[in-house]
Every structure is written in C-alpha cells, then in structure tokens.
Amino acid sequence: RDVLRHWLTCVAMMGMPRTIKMDNGPAYVSHKVGDFCSHWGITHITGVPSSPMGQAIVERTHWT
Is the pLDDT of residue 51 over 70? Predict the structure, then answer.
C-alpha cells in the first residue's frame, strides 16, 4: 500500500511511466502492484532473482 501511495505521488509530479523496473522484493511483486500497473497500462519488469547483475540498473540508481 505504501508503494502504491508513493507511486501516485511520483506520477502526479512526473507523469505516467510506460515501464517500471524493480527488484523482486515482496512489496514490488505483489498482486496489488500488478493490478496497479495493469490498470494504468504500465509494463512491470522485475530483475533476475538472486542476481546482482540483473539488478544493476536499479541498484545503481539507488546507489546501493
């Protein structure tokens, strides 16, 4: 729920994205997130599980 609230704030400020790439954290792979993305026409892409290289773009963006 917190993730979706944050996304709505971001969308209001920056516009609707076409694609969102996330890691495989439970908050990001939930049915609520999938439903949200489907409703708004957002392509939801997750990285390769247990693969730091599969998450490189996301991790670099967040400096983790």
Answer: no
